[in-house]
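Researcher: Please generate the 3D structure of the following complex. Treat every line as part of one assembly.
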Amino acid sequence: MSRKKIALIGGGQIGGVLTQLIAQKQLGDVIMFDVVEDLPQGKTLDIAEAAKVNGYDVNVTGTNSYKDIAGSDIVIITAGIPRKPGMSRDDLLVTNAKIMKSVAEGVKENAPDAIVIIISNPLDAMVTLFKEASGFPVNRVMGQDGVLDSSRFASFIAWELGVSVKDINALVLGGHGDTMVPIVRYANVNGIPVMELLERKYNDKAKAEEVMNAMVERTKAAGGEVVKLLKTGSAFYSPAASAIQMAEAVLYDEKRLLSTCAYLDGEFGVKGYYVGVPAILGANGVEKVVEFTLNEEEQTLLNNSVNAVKKLVEDMKRLGL
Ligand code: APR
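Model: Done. Output below.
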């Protein structure tokens, strides 16, 4: 069996960590594309030269020509600028939309059969733009948002309760922006509701709710918290790790149920937009969006988040992007 080929479009901070993870997990050969001359070649050469020490056999190379991504099974896109302190993801729209359009053309022309995972922000709008500009079927175009947002939510719960994060299940839905929706009702530690554990910890229902609210708000602002501390860019380890989990689900046909920026065709009452929802990921990409019943409050929050995504998509159209 020949090795899989994974193309990375964008060789910046996230692109570098993606390459390292793919090599260490031996998921396939990496071709890293970037518009900056020599950058992808230099970064991949550095990682390739650690192969002996780390014990991996995959090929890791860089290019400035889209032709080299031909035959890729998976394409992961990070091309675009990241946030600076004080910026929201939405502030990246104009610059990154222009970049995403050119990326979509390059991928369409050179890797027309690939499954595409997008990380560039503002995520939901960038995924929509890629889908429209490439004409790829919706099951082969997805975005990384919920895996990371859910991981952040799970981390805060684990730290609060003093238990391993491995035992936390915590789902975040909606757009990958300030309106995202952490689902509190189903957050659990190996099946035990987090709210019950908080109430027992504090012996006070109001205090438990206050602590949970703080974790929800921290989750929604978690990307910005990192940006504020880094000052020169945005999170890169955790977004890369999250996209790799999605890529593994596709490469190994795992049928994982992961929160994914997926195309909705009526599910959750949303039609024609990309939003973060639970989806089954396997060899065919997004194989199914998994619906479940939201209560009134959750549905209202989700609708609010969808409206924020719709507004961005409309802005993109209005600006001719
Ligand atoms: N084609 C390919 N690559 C491009 C293009 C383009 N048209 N334009 C810019 N790039 C490259 C840059 O040269 C840079 O190497 O994209 C890379 C982006 O890397 P960083 O600036 O380090 O950003 P990173 O932290 O990796 O984040 C990338 O992911 O999470 C999002 O908000 C984040 O939109 C940002 C993206």
